[in-house]
Amino acid sequence: MIMSMTGFGRGETARDGNKATVELTSVNSRYFESQLRLPRELSSLEPRFREILAGSFSRGKISCVLAWEPAPGAGGRVSLNEQMAAMYQEIFRRIKEKLNLPGEVAVADFVGLPEILTFEPEQPDSKLVYEIAEQALVQAAATLKEMRRAEGEKIHQDLSHRLSLIIETIARVERESEGNVEAYRQKLQARIKELFGESGYDPQRLAEEVAYLAERSDITEECVRLRIHAEHFRDALESAEPVGRRLNFLMQEMNREANTIGSKAGSAEISSLAVTIKEELEKIREQIQNVE
């Protein structure tokens, strides 16, 4: 069953008061791409996260966001950014002198200023962090894959329906083309008789013209190849492997044959049927851009 490339997945794992939440968003892409947003203190997880995602998906641009909540009451330490505090003190001094303000700069003036004090929570054992975060990612990947599978099933149904319409239309083209040459011969003969009378034309020349038309307008091979490509397309839809690129190639081949049929059409009816086939192929093309 084919898989879509769009979807959303979420996973959450908690242990010993620590909690990791992973959200995955997937959109179309010609290849596999992963974009990660991890807390700075967990940046070392990035290689492992990319490995898990690459092993779970073959195509699609996947955005991954990891949120980490340490256990309540976890220890840590407060750090003073002395350089930043000195910069603020100098700014306060210059403001006081320039505006001739009274008073002195106090410690309370620094409280709440950006980047003066930073709290660094105590990190739990790195092995525990990795296990919790990885489990959350695996859960998110599983839910994303299920959403992509469900969306792929809908695409499968639509593609199968359109493929059946194309195959039915090919059969109509073949039936319509069977009498084209004879109809053209009769029409050409009647027109010549109208212009030159019974003895004013060469039957041999007429036969040659009809033979030339038959060769130029014969679409048997195109119909056969188009049907073969359609059957290969149908087989690919049932494959358990990612087939997005293969479907795209087969769609291009089918479109090429449909264009040739349209250009060689010997009647308005066949031209109309060729247009119908190309319309369905365009809808298929749009759909398979989302197939993994």
Topology of helices and strands:
Elements lengths: L6 E9 L2 E10 L4 E6 L8 H11 L3 E10 L6 E5 L1 H18 L17 E5 L4 H53 L1 H17 L6 H15 L2 H18 L6 H21 L3 H21 L4
Parallel strand pairs: 3-4
Antiparallel strand pairs: 1-2, 2-4, 5-6
Helix pairs in contact: 1-3, 3-6, 3-8, 4-5, 6-7, 7-8
Keywords:
292 residues; alpha+beta; Ribosomal Protein S5, domain 2; 4-stranded mixed sheet; two-stranded antiparallel ribbon; 8 helices; 6 strands; 60% helix; 15% strand; elongated
Description:
The chain has 292 residues and is α+β, with helices and mostly antiparallel strands. It folds into three domains: 7-73 and 125-147, 2-Layer Sandwich (Ribosomal Protein S5, domain 2), CATH 3.30.230; 76-121, no CATH class; 150-288. Helix content is 60%, strand content 15%. The chain has eight helices and six strands, in the order βββαββαβαααααα. It has helices at 46-56, 82-99, 126-178, 180-196, 203-217, 220-237, 244-264, 268-288, and strands spanning 7-15, 18-27, 32-37, 60-69, 76-80, 117-121. The chain has a four-stranded mixed sheet with strand order 1-2-4-3. The chain has a two-stranded antiparallel ribbon with strand order 5-6. Helix 3 (126-178) runs antiparallel to helix 8 and helix 6 runs antiparallel to helix 7. The relative contact order is 0.15. The model has no long low-confidence stretch (mean pLDDT 85).
Short description:
This protein has 292 residues and is α+β, with helices and mostly antiparallel strands. The protein is 60% helix and 15% strand.
State the secondary-structure class. alpha+beta
Shape designation: elongated
Radius of gyration: 35 Å
Q: Helical percent range?
A: 55-70%
Uncertain segments are none
How many angstroms does the end-to-end distance come to?
A: 11 Å
- Kindly report the spatial arrangement of strands forming the biggest sheet: 1-2-4-3
The count of domains is: 3
What can be said about the biggest beta sheet?
Answer: 4 strands, mixed
Mean pLDDT across every amino acid position: 85
Strand content: 15-25%
How many helical elements?
8
Order of helices and strands: EEEHEEHEHHHHHH
The count of DSSP E runs of length 2 or more, i.e. the number of strands, is 6
